[in-house]
Amino acid sequence: MNSGTRSGGNLFHSFGEFSVPSGGQAVFNNAVDVSNILSRVTGGNASQINGLIQAQGSANLFLINPAGIIFGQGASLSIGGSFYGSTADSILFEDGEFSATDLENPPLLTINAPIGLGFRDEPGDIVNRSVAQNDSGGFVGLSVNQGESISLIGGDVTIENGGLIFAPGGRVELGGLIEAGTVNFNNDNSLTFPEGIARGNVSLTDSSIASVLSDVGGSIGVNAANLELASGGQFVSGIRAGGGSVDAQAGNIVISATDSVLIDGQENNNFTGILANVNTNSIGNAGNINITTGSFTAINSALIRLDSDGQGNAGNLTINATDSVLFDNATAATNVLSSAQNNSDSGNISITTGSLTLDNDSRLVADNSALGTGGDIRLNVTDQVSLNNSSFINVSAAGGGSLTIDARNLELTSDSNIVAGITVNAATSDAQAGDIVINTTEDVLIDAADTESITQIVNSNLGSGNAGNIEVNARNISLINGGAINSFGDGQGSTGNITLNATGNISFDGIKDFQRGGISNFFRVMTTGTPGNIDLKAQNLTLTNGAAILNQITGEANSGDINIDVADTISIDGAGEVANDNTSSFSPSSIASNVFFESIGNSGNININTPNLVLSRNGAINTSIFGQGNAGNININSNLITIGEQGNTTLSPSNIRSNIFNDSISAAEEVSAGSIKVNTDSLFISDGGDISAGISGSGNGGNIKINATHTVSVDGSDFQNE
Questions:
Q1: Are residue 330 and residue 361 in the same domain, yes or no?
Q2: pLDDT at 427 over 50
Q3: Strand, helix or coil for residue 668
Q4: pLDDT digits (tens, 9 = 90+) for 647-664
Q5: What does the alpha-carbon distance between residue 41 and residue 37 come to, in Å, rounded to a whole number?
Q6: In a domain? residue 209
Q7: Do 249 and 128 fall into the same domain?
Q8: 3-class DSSP state for residue 667?
């Protein structure tokens, strides 16, 4: 095509019809100093592109056809600049427009660069099915040179049947309007869509791909009403395998969908979702993924991944959804893999929404399996956060990585977990894992029913360094059917504190197989470290059917303290069955601080403040040593204490005890049971209940001191100090 009208660096073309048949070519024979080729199609029929569109030099090519543009399987581009395909009515300039529908007035032929696209109501759609191949047989689809852009602006934009878009290191822009409005061009090749104007839909299906993967740069922008990635549809950015450089920074993927975003794997064998990775043996930092929408849904093995498997940091994921976020058998992760180099850091995940649900093995992960810092996960949810059916949130790393949840309610059920801590050996022994902080205006529920595994919140240390704390603030906190909150240490460092604050009630109930409902701080020290404390505040505290509050040591260390302040009543009641290796036994509901067999250290103190304390049907408060060391003290301030009501006869009656159980301790070791101090108005003990501070073997029994201003009643029970 040698025609057209030139004005400065712009070359204008007008066509009644514009289509390219299969195997055909449309060649713009422009001068090499032309900056922009601006083409309009005025005849009212959609353009069918099944062959090659070619331009000379580095010119950008604009093709507008309000009736629609369809790129077939053989469609391809050979241009030096960027490509803009649109069903807009006109190309806008500062001093006018180049219109495809207003043919009565002479078109503006200006020397200025275009500034935007003008739309009228109901523009046509754009479809891309291109799987064109290059001379080497590689699939290139619609592609441009390094650093250039491809923009498809409808109406609706549909990439289907494996359609491909490649703009390495450049930009892919997809979007549309279905009402009259203006889309503006920005200096960075991004587009600005108007607020309050209805948008078209964008979809990538059937293993279609839009990719900007390169050595550096590369960004993707989507502006739509609804975005759908389904059955292998993909957005891909990041640093290519073996590429990049020390200063390389990949671009971002930014999605704005006013109504919804849906990522649906549909049991497709190919990956479905969004990738922004630092790939194997590459150098540079991954970009971020930012999603703003009404509702976000990822289902059927859908994935969002921001990984680093090279030398560079993983990117951040941000989802802002006004209504809801749902992951159903889907994953969103910012990871640093174990093969990554140079202490690469994980990115962060931030979700702000009305409700958040993870179901059917769904995962939110900010994990670092190398030696860098883990990412943070921040969930800001107006209503409820729900994790169901083996779903989990994980911020484990060699250091760093915190989790914060702000919501109305939090619910974990059926083998779902919230996990933080150190999972590998940190670069330094003083590395610090992040905290888990949960703030709800109403309730927290952890329910392990209908599962054979653990349902819990856990902050652990499985390497070197120190685990973080767990803090839960709520109206009511319920851990039932073996649901648990645990701090676990099995490495070379300290465990964190567990703090629960409830303006209403805290309820712990039941045992699930070997997992006792309630909270525990279990420390199995390998070299050095310190276990944390457990602190609870509530209106009422109830432990039933074997639930427990435990601070336990295996190794060589002193156990932390348990501090409980309850405004009304503490009730410790009943026992539960523990299943282990095809056998079962019963464990009482209890508050306990223990040092286990073949361990050296002192068990921590138990401090309880409450107006009413009730221990019934084997309920117990204990500090015990089964190895070597001193048992902790038990300090109770309560107006009314009741110990009694016989429960399971195979267990000890309800009791308050500080004991040492180790016959192998020599007299020279001078170990002692802890002291028990009770300040109360009235104390009632019956049905074999007891208060004791004793020792089995050599050593000293502890002191028992009861300060009662009104009544002490002992019926069929005793105090023991031996």
A1: yes
A2: no
A3: helix
A4: 666 667 788 887 755 444
A5: 13
A6: no
A7: no
A8: helix
218, 247 contact by CB (below 8 A): no
Last residue of a domain, one of 334, 359, 382: 382
Q: Give the tens place of pLDDT for each residue, 286-324.
A: 999 999 999 999 999 999 999 888 888 899 999 999 999
The 10 Å CB-count burial string (b at 16+, else e) for 327-350 is: bbbbbbbbbbbeebbebbbbbbbb
Sequence-distant (6+) residues with CB within 8 A of 73 are 50, 129, 130, 131, 132, 161
Q: Beta strands of 645-702 (E only): which ranges?
A: 655-661, 676-686, 690-692, 695-696
What would the 3-class secondary structure string for 116-180 be? EEEECCCCCCEEECCCCECCCCCECCEECCCCCEEEEEECCEEECCCCEEECCCCEEEEEEECCC
User: Does residue 112 share a domain with residue 250?
Assistant: no
Neighbours of 279 (CB within 10 A): 21
Which residues 6+ apart lie within 8 Å of 98 measured at CB?
12, 38, 40, 90, 91, 107, 108, 109, 114
Task: Give the residue, 400 or 546, on which the prediction is more confident.
Answer: 546
Using pLDDT thresholds of 50, 70 and 90, give the confidence band for residue 667. Answer: very low
Residue 517 lies in a domain: no
Which token pair is 161? Answer: 């049947």
Residue 16 lies in a domain: yes
Number of domains comprising the chain: 2
Confidence class for position 665, pLDDT limits 50, 70, 90:
very low
**pLDDT at position 68 over 80:** yes
Residue 524 pLDDT class (50, 70, 90 cuts) = low
Residue 357 neighbours by CB distance under 10 Å: 20
Using CA atoms, how far apart are residues 347 and 429, in angstroms rounded to an integer? Answer: 23
Asked, for residue 416, whether it belongs to a domain, the answer is no
200 and 149 Cβ atoms separated by less than 8 Å: no
The domain in which residue 168 lies consists of 1-200
**At 77, which CATH number?**
2.160.20.10
Residues 220, 190 share a domain: no
Give me the residues paired with residue 92 across strands.
97, 116
Q: Are 76 and 55 a contacting pair, CB within 8 Å?
A: no
Smallest CA-to-CA distance from 221 within 188, 199, 252 is with 252
Question: HSE-up of 54 (CA within 13 Å, CB side)?
Answer: 11
Task: Report residue 511 as tokens.
Answer: 């045992």
Domain end call among 382, 407, 433: 382
255 and 378, same domain (yes or no): yes
pLDDT at 651: 66
Q: Specify whether 229 is located in the same domain as 140.
A: no
Contacts of 546 (CB under 8 A, 6+ apart): 510, 511, 516, 517, 574, 575, 576, 577, 578, 586, 587, 588, 589
Question: Which token pair is 572?
Answer: 């410790």
If asked whether residues 254 and 377 sit together in one domain, one would say yes
pLDDT over 70, % of the chain? 88
Q: Tokens standing for 375?
A: 């990412």
DSSP letter for each residue of 52-87: EEEESTT-EEEEE-TT-EEE-TT-EEE-SS-EEEE-
Measure CA 472 to chain center: 18
Give just the sign of the alpha carbon dihedral 180, 184, 189, 190.
Answer: negative
Same domain, yes or no: 261 and 143: no
**Displacement of CA 429 from its chain's centroid (Å):** 27
Dig out the tokens for 322 from the structure: 């006004």
pLDDT at residue 490 greater than cutoff 90 = no
Structure tokens at 40: 């309009």
Q: Specify the pTM.
A: 0.94
d(CA 487, CA 495): 6
Residues 6+ apart with CB under 8 A from 521: 486, 487, 495, 497, 498, 531, 532, 533, 534, 550, 551, 552, 560
With 0-12 CB in 10 A as exposed, 13-18 as middle and 19+ as buried, what is 597? exposed
